[in-house]
Amino acid sequence: MSTFLELGLKEEINKALTDLGYENPTVIQEKAIPQVIASTQDLKAFAQTGTGKTAAFSLPIIEQIDRGSKNTQAIILSPTRELAVQIGKNIQDFSKYIPEIKVTTVYGGANIDEQIRSLKRGSQIVVGTPGRTVDLIKRRALKLGNIRWVVLDEADEMLNMGFKDELDQVLEVTPETKQTLLFSATFPKEVESIARNYMDNPVEVTSGQKNQGADSVNHEYYLVTERTRYAALKRIADVNTDIYAIVFCRTRRETQEVANNLIKDGYSADALHGDLSQAQRDGVMDKFRKKSIQVLVATDVAARGLDVNSLTHVINHKLPDQIENYTHRSGRTGRAGNKGISIVLVNSKEKGRIRAIERIIKKKFEQVAVPSGKEICQNQLMHLIDKVQNVEVNTKDIEEFLPSIYEKLEGLDREELIQKFVSLEFNNFLSYYKNAQDLNDLSSSRGGSSSSGSRGRARDENMTRFFINIGRKDNLNPARLIGLINDQRITDNIDIGAIDILDTFSFFEIDKNHESGALEAFEANHPEFNGRNVNIEITKKERDGGGGRRRGKKSFGNKDGGGFGRRRSSDRKSGTSERRSRTADRPDRNSKDKKSGGFGRRRRER
Ligand code: AMP
């Protein structure tokens, strides 16, 4: 790995980078910086946000700028005001020890006269959004006749946002001799056409594979229904105790609604979208950067300029209209050496889009089950215990109260004390999730559950379907059925696929390799459930429309007689509604924190 000095940057720049904590160049910096210093050839860089692309194009420009001249020598175009401001600020930081270098940032929605005054004072580097840049060119406040570098940052986003004409106008008024540096996370045909029309035999550099998501990001999807989408989002926030995430929505309205609901339910959240004033947006972003809010609900455009490196998750509440935008969203996590998770909530109709994204990012998604109440409680409880372990005790300040506290608690032994303390903190939470329902849309997924009780993975082959003679009327639900299967100790960590709970009997799938093991275990253990002897049977024929094998089995028959076919058809109906009703997550609908002072409120107090 080389150093910044070895890439050809002068000591003044290196010193500024050290101040910023940049120890070594990133991949894109290693490739782009020496190239732009050594050659005037145009450059096409495949780099998404988080790869260090801003320094990759800014540093070689700062290195070579003619600081004796006040002419504008570099114009950097960026899709949003926030990103432009960020780039401007980075350039100031990078050139901290070269005071002659001036940078002006220009963008819409702000006083143009001030920007004109700043340009008149002379700036070697101008960073701007396309619309305002064109406006300033037309007013002759921005002169591009001496331009040596044009940077198109996030070119795909600028085109997505409809800035094609503005890009054309800027590129056309810059000298032919300029060097064009085009940075884009994705290269749809519109970006390629800009490259073709305006770049001369460009050198290509990449920060990884083209269009590929960062390696530091894992991609997961959760299968939900429209009724459970929000509840699933809350459970994801609940199970990840230290979540610091952006939740992406498609529209401003959806963004505001999700944020309002989260705030109402006691989460540390806020909204960021274009209907807010600039001052409001700045305020929200500032709070999020300082981590005084943990969950930011945002539209793609509004979140664009937010420079945050430590996001634990990106959550796609809804997938973006343009699949390519998924790369931008997911690239907001797993940055600067951190790992991140990009989560997508999809309903059964949207599921096909996952495959399309996989093709673009060249990575597989993992299907993950919406966490159960038990799983959430376990995580939260352990989080609480970790906090207890790590809390610093300020003996000096509590000293005077301790004797009377010790006296009061004298009768309790260690175990009792721990139990009481944990219950005090946790009772509300436990009761909130006690009857929490399964939120997975099992109707369209095989494999929403895993017998290990951990987050399940999708199984779509090699499963055997079993009939079991207990159902909803026996108080069976998917969690209990999984527990029952586990209790038979067929093998460690057996995979369980689709589960269909019907009125008086049910079906489940397990790994085909354990089909005879399962039969034997149930046979040997004689399990009981709710006072009934439990039997299972393979239903291969049932799948083909048969089911005859069960017919002769006494324990499966109803007292009132009647064949399985008939009972099954009525049960099928109730089975469907069973599955539907399972998706309603009543506890989540009641705002837990209003009553319980659950952890969401504690978060806000933090
Ligand atoms: P960017 O891709 O330009 O948005 O940069 C992503 C983040 O990485 C920014 O917060 C930068 O400050 C940071 N960064 C860029 N280059 C380096 C580096 N060489 N070492 C450490 N952090 C960096």
CATH topology value of the largest domain: Rossmann fold
Strand content: 5-15%
What's the CATH class label of the largest domain? Alpha Beta
- Summed up, the helix count is 27
> How much helical structure, as a percent, in the residues?
40-55%
Can you walk through the features of this model?
- There is one protein chain.
- By secondary structure, the protein is an alpha/beta fold.
- It has four domains: 11-206, Rossmann fold (3-Layer(aba) Sandwich), CATH 3.40.50.300; 217-372, Rossmann fold (3-Layer(aba) Sandwich), CATH 3.40.50.300; 374-432, no CATH class; 459-601, no CATH class.
- Helix content is 43%, strand content 15%.
- It is built from 27 helices and 20 strands.
- It has a seven-stranded parallel sheet with strand order 3-4-2-5-6-1-7, with helices on both faces.
- Helix 14 links the parallel strand 12 (313-316) and strand 13.
- It is elongated.
- It starts with 10 loop residues before the first helix and ends with a helix.
- The relative contact order is 0.08.
- Mean pLDDT is 80; it is low at 209-213, 444-460 and 541-606.
- Bound molecules: adenosine monophosphate.
- Residues 22, 25-26, 29, 49-55, 307, 309, 335-336 line the site of adenosine monophosphate.
- Residues 22, 25-26, 29, 49-55, 307, 309, 335-336 line the site of adenosine monophosphate (AMP).
